[in-house]
Specification:
By secondary structure, the protein is an alpha/beta fold. It has helices at about 30-40, 60, 80-90, 110-120, 160-175, 180-190, 210-224, and strands at about 5-10, 25, 30, 45-55, 70-75, 95-100, 125-130, 135-140, 140-145, 150-155, 160, 195. The strands form three sheets. Strands 1, 4, 5, 6, 7, 10, 11 and 12 form an eight-stranded mixed β-sheet that branches. It has a two-stranded antiparallel sheet with strand order 2-3. It starts with a strand and ends with a helix. The structure holds cytidine-5'-monophosphate (C5P).
Length: about 220
């Protein structure tokens, strides 16, 4: 089934610090974003990878002419960046995969599993069981303890049938809704979102220490 991949990469990466947004930090000498794009391009089902970047960076990144890769200007929020990328894609595709630019270690098997699950049920994401006990906090004090047996940590790639995502993004626009991931938004509108097993190695590079860990993992992968 033809798949469109959307990578929202228009954020400033403020948690990482420094001048370069985290998605452009180097891993083994190559920007994280490039690692991610190249991993998707290995898949023959991927008709195009659309990357949303900030308006300032668009002219520079657009110079990297890569077959099946398109850069678009992002919006004010992640969701707006995803929406713009989706609306600008002109290709024939049945499924859409949305992936964080800073998760270079997603497994091919996970991508295939979410794509298959979305083709069947409309929407799917990789979810990781939560090992820590999670508390909510109020004014600096522990407020509530959540039942961790009911929790998962959301990962990407998250996958949707084209018409499902189209409907979800339209509803969010109409209602002025926002979300930190599209699977949660879909569920909010009543879509049944299938959860496939996530993977600890598919972590989100968020802080400088994560990058050091990523270098170690990458070196081990390259040896294998
Ligand atoms: O801040 P957070 O890590 O949740 O951002 C998730 C992703 O959304 C990042 O890859 C970031 O670059 C992207 N983003 C975007 N457009 C924005 C804000 C964030 O594409 N306006």
């Amino acid at each position: 089934m033809p798949i469109l991949v959307i990578i929202p990469a228009a954020g400033t990466g403020s948690r990482f610090g420094g001048d370069i947004p985290k998605q452009f930090q180097a891993l083994a000498g190559k920007p994280l974003l490039q690692h991610v794009v190249e991993r998707f391009l290995f898949h023959q089902d991927v008709v195009r990878v659309v990357v949303a970047v900030s308006e300032q960076l668009l002219p520079a990144v657009s110079q990297t002419a890569l077959d099946r890769v398109q850069f678009v200007s992002g919006g004010a929020t992640r969701l707006q960046s995803v929406t713009r990328a989706f609306r600008e894609a002109q290709d024939e595709f049945d499924l859409v995969a949305i992936h964080d630019a800073v998760r270079p270690f997603f497994a091919d098997a996970t991508f295939r599993a979410v794509a298959d699950a979305a083709a069947e049920s409309g929407a799917a994401l990789p979810g990781l069981k939560v090992a820590d006990t999670i508390h909510t906090v109020r004014d600096g004090f522990l407020d509530l303890t959540l039942d961790r047996t009911t929790l998962i940590a959301a990962q990407t790639p998250q996958c949707f049938r084209r018409e499902v995502l189209d409907d979800v993004l339209r509803k969010a626009e109409d209602g002025g809704d926002d979300a930190t991931d599209e699977a949660g938004l879909a569920a909010r509108y009543g879509v049944k979102v299938k959860i496939v097993p996530g993977d600890t190695i598919n972590f989100k590079i968020t802080r400088p220490d994560d990058l050091a860990l990523a270098e170690t993992i990458y070196a081990r992968w390259s040896e294998a």
